[in-house]
Write a structure and sequence with these properties.
four-stranded mixed β-sheet, 8 strands, about 140 residues, 4 helices, binds zinc ion, hypothetical protein PF0899 fold, about 30% helix
Length: about 140
């Protein structure tokens, strides 16, 4: 299962980062997930909780921020896809977007490249150390 291997990777990274900072407990994990990454955040969380059992990340909050797909066009336009517009158009359903490389630019109408939306990033983890301090660790 796709989500299970993702959860394994997240778990290993979180634990490595937490240990490097002398953590006694992982309080929360914040992920950024592109909408085109074809990943179900609930399933990742479910797998993560199963893997994290009996570890210092056992009781951590698992937060997921969804990222909208972003575009880049020859005309200079850079921005996110208008998701409201996607929902209104059958041809632009976000499931289908994962398979297309280009989409109409909202400014010039030309072919804009999809440059983001497939990312999966551990944005931050919050840990507790022996000194009872809370540390934010960026692991970009
Ligand atoms: Zn354009």
């Amino acid at each position: 299962m796709h989500e299970f291997s993702i959860a394994c990777e997240i778990f290993e990274q979180v634990l490595a980062t937490a240990k490097a900072h002398g953590a006694t407990e992982v309080k929360s994990i914040t992920l950024q997930m592109g909408r085109l990454s074809h990943t179900n955040p609930e399933q990742v969380e479910f797998c993560f909780k199963a893997i994290a059992e009996d570890s210092i990340a056992e009781n951590s909050d698992f937060l997921v921020e969804m990222l909208a797909p972003s575009l880049e066009c020859k005309c200079g336009y850079e921005g996110t896809i208008n998701e409201k517009k996607i929902r209104e158009s059958d041809a632009l359903k976000s499931e289908l977007l994962a398979y297309v490389a280009a989409i109409e630019c909202p400014i010039c109408g030309g072919q804009a490249r999809i440059v983001g939306g497939r990312e999966l990033i551990i944005k931050s983890i919050e840990i507790e150390t022996e000194e009872d301090q809370t540390t934010d660790s960026n692991n970009k």
